[in-house]
Amino acid sequence: MGRLYIDCREFPSEMACSVAIVADTEKELVDAAVHHAVTVHGEHDTPAFRSEIRNAIHKGTPPVAAPA
Ligand SMILES: [Zn+2]
Fold it and tell me: Could you tell me the pLDDT band of residue 10, with boundaries at 50, 70 and 90?
């Protein structure tokens, strides 16, 4: 099983967040990403938001360079 990640640099935010979250399973990754989004970005943990998070998952590890 490969690594999965979500890179907060892909999301527009007023604080230009540079956090990336990596995990082995989708559940761990989504839970950690939702926790980050709620505590840092003031998002709300809803089923719609969780599916948005799932759509942002990439395989592998976060790139060193910021996404375009
Ligand atoms: Zn963030």
Answer: very high
